[in-house]
Amino acid sequence: MKKIGLTAIVTAFMFAGCSEYLDQEPLDSVTEAVYFTTPEQFELAANYFYRQSFGYDDGDQSSDLSGNLEISPSYGQGQTSIPTSDGIWNNNYDQMREANQLIEKAAEYDGNQSEITSYVATAHFFRAWNHYKLLLRFGGVPIVTRSLDVDSEELLAPRNSRYEVVNQIFIDLDVAIAGLPSENTIPDSEKGKLSTEAAKSFKARILLYEATWEKYVGTATDGDGLNVGAGSNKPAGYPSVEEMLTEAKQQSLAVINSAAYQLWDHRAEFGDRNLFYLFSLEDDGSNPAGLSKANNREFIIQTVYDNPLRRINQNLTHSKKHTPSRKLMDMYLCSDGLPVQHSSVFEGYDEMISEFQNRDYRLTSFVSEPLKEYWGWGNSTNGGGAQYGVDFADAGTNFDYRYVPQLTSPAAGRNIGYQGVKLTTEDKGSETKDESFNYPHLRYAEVLLTYAEASVELGGGAISDSDLDISINKIRERSNVAPLTNALITPYADLNMLGEIRRERAIELFGENQRFNDLKRWGIAEEELSHAVSTTYVIGTEFETAVDPKNPSSTIYNPSAFSYGTTTTEQSVSSYAGIATTKPGALILDISGNRNFSISNYIDPIPSVQIDQNPELLQNPGW
């Protein structure tokens, strides 16, 4: 809210093709006063929002599912402190100004309003997006629906409640739903632009988020609005929990029935690494089947990247951010549809490759199997990028492509015990920070998960097999996992439908910035994040004495390097009894005593500089 001067320059952000979609051409002689006069100018202004608001936003590091603890301070340990300033606060209010400006100029437009309907709808979507990002971070915040000036009352206004913010988001998304084009009518050259189905999918997400927050968290984080927090004021006509869940299911079903999107399923070409290529897809040289981004119909809301015009620029493949914890490894299902503690096809942990056998393709796509050969990346790292159609032995690099687990030093921070490869590439053309695969903010799999979760919540913990078949079981099929049915889990007292649908969401969306938000809206973040974080079973397994085949003078595991040692008793890792317990012998990465996430961490503190500038912004409870 600090940038209150009029925008003097509008950046062109065109979509006539991938290169034009990403290339920016500054119109340095066009001012705000004369700019919004033609439909083309409204289009250019609307296109600008995509680059302004969409970026690379992965997350989940330091969560209960992550073996990557290289974050200081660790959010998963509850170590948040009051910041002086905050990028989420600053950037989203800055970005909101542009959307408000377009909406205001549209009201003054002398031409046919139908000429600019989709661009106005785009502005309403992004205003909802900006308010949503602020809601996730801070709870209730000041609502801003107009361009501000130096004397605007909003600059010194108190916070709106989370319910008022959500209501405004719903208002904006209804405008977006009505005004955006159908995905089926958007030409290939403009894929990546928002559609009415995208707005419906996003609204379904927020309906589910807020319904479950109200059901499981309630007003615990609101404060009284007089001395602390944003209060609990609800606008007239605010929907009930049941109404929000019902609409979440309806909006999801509308997207499903539109046939605008489909799950990525190229098991015939990629086998058990099918999903790896969904998240590393660039041009036809980025995968062995020669597919391109045009073959991906799963991403609904996405940041579109391009090499060389717009790279991600975050050194993703080198860092491999998404390492699974012991808990996540055991949450992945077996091919018979059952978790490891109940499956007859699970092969245990005795050998390094045992737990990878007969497993969910989401595991084999995103976690490297010990001693299996994998291409490196770029021109030289780990032997260099993929040479499709060439055997590893014939690559001409004299490199041993086998993956050897790292259990010798916790100082590495990432990929201890397991190596996560979601959102990485084996493209020979991608050097450090050159990755340019698109990043999904919302994809079709989430719509199916939303439908299933809303259904089971409305059913009081029950869901029909038919509802499972049009949602969860489509995801399980492409993951090479047997369908989830009532008959499948009935014999097991520790399994229930709500827990299994939450499991599906956890393993499907890991690394996509959803885990912390899910744990909080379910009201179980304190419990789930309080357990010790462990990784590979080493005691009594092949890992304990295995020699490194790439360095025969060394063993794979060095016990003296890990100060926390290994688990010595059976340990529960979840509030849901259906998640496998951790047995003795697992290497400990972080002890439970370090993990102190609490209800005050459910929403972050308001930056101190904002309260200094506007004392009406009461701090959140507990800060």
Keyword list:
mainly alpha, RagB/SusD family nutrient uptake outer membrane protein, single chain, Serine Threonine Protein Phosphatase 5, Tetratricopeptide repeat, two-stranded antiparallel sheet, disordered N terminus, 34% helix
Quick summary:
The chain is mainly alpha-helical and 623 residues long. It has helices at residues 18-22, 32-35, 39-53, 87-107, 117-138, 162-179, 196-216, 241-258, 267-270, 274-278, 316-319, 326-331, 361-366, 444-458, 465-469, 472-478, 486-489, 497-509, 515-521, 525-528, 608-613; strands at 11-13, 24-26, 299-303, 439-443, 533-537, 586-590. It is globular and about 75 Å long.
* Element-level helix/strand string: EHEHHHHHHHHHEHHHEHHHHHHHEEH
Uncertain regions: pLDDT < 50 for 5+ in a row?
Answer: 1-31
Amount of helix: 25-40%
Please identify the top-level CATH class of the domain at 11-263 and 602-613. Answer: Mainly Alpha
- Identify the overall geometry: globular
Quaternary structure type: single chain
Biggest pleated sheet: 2 strands, antiparallel
Question: What gap, in angstroms, lies between the N and C termini?
Answer: 22 Å
